[in-house]
Design brief:
The protein is α/β, with parallel strands linked by helices. The protein has helices at residues 10-15, 18-27, 34-41, 45-57, 79-93, 126-138, 157-167, 195-198, 233-255; strands at residues 61-65, 73-77, 115-120, 143-148, 189-192, 213-216. The strands form two sheets. A four-stranded parallel β-sheet has the order 4-3-5-6. Strands 1-2 form a two-stranded antiparallel sheet. The protein is globular, with a radius of gyration of 20 Å.
């Protein structure tokens, strides 16, 4: 008796296309606009947009309107959703292929841990949240700081509260700093969390002509959420949760052997 063929899991069908796999690979490292993806993968914009729409419909990719140019949008790969889809795909093939979604264990600290800079405009919410969470999860494996192009006088009290209540992290005494105060310092990774600051952030390369790896996370300012988003403290709690997910998936990249300078 012939067993009826079962359709391939949705993730296998989506990721199995060579161009969609390339788009997923690029978006796994940073958020990008369509025109940037066109340049990276060297395919026509209409083709890129078509495959991005399929990835969006499949729930693997999300979009967010740019705060720097409201006519543009950033695409983001939902790594948490990808992990769930990969686990389900393995299980669909064979019960023994049940995949764990646990992130890799961190190695012992290296002689010089990677240096990471998080940036946003005011350095009052998004970038200090990311700094605190990476330091919290990194356990000495990463050197991390944050700064802003137009720093506010103080951290936003809801950002301080959300970190304290969600992760037991106290930032009460931290103050925003200007990007100019970091002139001359070298960072291996510069991660912008604000569409506006991405356009003005310095390179922070080393004295030998090396360049920091630039990564962008397009995250809404919780102090001014979009019209469809809940304002006030819930916006900050939501931002902390999003950044925490991104930071946890960033750590294995930072501490892998390939990421070391």
């Amino acid at each position: 008796m012939v067993t009826p063929a079962q359709p391939a899991p949705a993730f296998a069908r989506l990721a199995g296309h060579p161009l969609r796999w390339r788009l997923l690979t690029e978006l796994a490292t940073s958020d990008y606009r369509v025109r940037e993806l066109v340049h990276l993968v060297d395919h026509p914009q209409n083709l890129i947009s078509y495959h991005l729409r399929l990835l969006r419909d499949g729930g693997l990719v999300t979009t967010r309107r740019s705060s720097a140019d409201a006519r543009d949008s950033y695409y983001h790969l939902d790594l948490e959703r990808c992990a769930q889809a990969l686990a389900a795909t393995g299980l669909a093939l064979h019960p023994a292929l049940r995949l764990t979604q646990d992130l890799p264990q961190l190695p012992e600290p290296s002689a010089r841990p990677p240096a990471v800079l998080f940036t946003c405009t005011g350095n009052s919410a998004r970038s200090p949240i990311a700094e605190a969470l990476l330091r919290h999860h990194g356990g000495g494996h990463v050197e991390v700081t944050s700064a802003g192009s137009h720093p506010r006088p103080h951290l936003h009290p809801d950002a301080v509260r959300a970190l304290r209540e969600g992760h037991g992290i106290d930032l009460q005494d931290q103050r925003p700093r200007h990007l100019d105060t970091l002139t001359g310092r070298h960072f291996d990774h510069v991660i912008s969390l604000c569409d506006k600051v991405r356009e003005v952030c310095p390179d922070f390369g080393d004295h030998f002509g090396g360049h920091a790896r630039r990564i962008h996370w397009s995250i809404s300012d919780p102090a001014t959420p979009g019209p469809a988003e809940q304002a006030g403290y819930p916006a900050f709690a939501r931002t902390v949760a999003e950044i925490d997910t991104r930071v946890r998936y960033l750590l294995p990249v930072l501490t892998s052997r390939k990421a070391q300078p």
